[in-house]
Q: What sequence folds into this?
């Protein structure tokens, strides 16, 4: 049993990266989260730390609009 994921990278003018991650892709897009990497949390090498969920959406277009409003552009 596999999980369908689609990940888009977005960058702001300061070089910050956020990921739009879609789960369970279907004809209308599927639920998604926006997450960002916190390098300070990840420094100790623990793979379970370092990602912060910034927001959750039911529609990927709403998530893309949110990212644009926050000053991010697709990579």
A:
């Amino acid at each position: 049993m596999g999980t369908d994921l689609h990940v888009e990278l977005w960058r702001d003018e300061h070089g910050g990266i956020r990921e739009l991650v879609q789960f369970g892709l279907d004809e209308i897009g599927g639920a998604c989260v926006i997450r960002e990497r916190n390098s300070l949390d990840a420094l100790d090498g623990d793979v379970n730390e370092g990602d912060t969920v910034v927001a959750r959406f039911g529609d990927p277009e709403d998530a893309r609009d949110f990212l644009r409003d926050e000053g991010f552009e697709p990579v």
The mean pLDDT is 85. The first helix runs from residue 39 to 42. The radius of gyration is 13 Å.
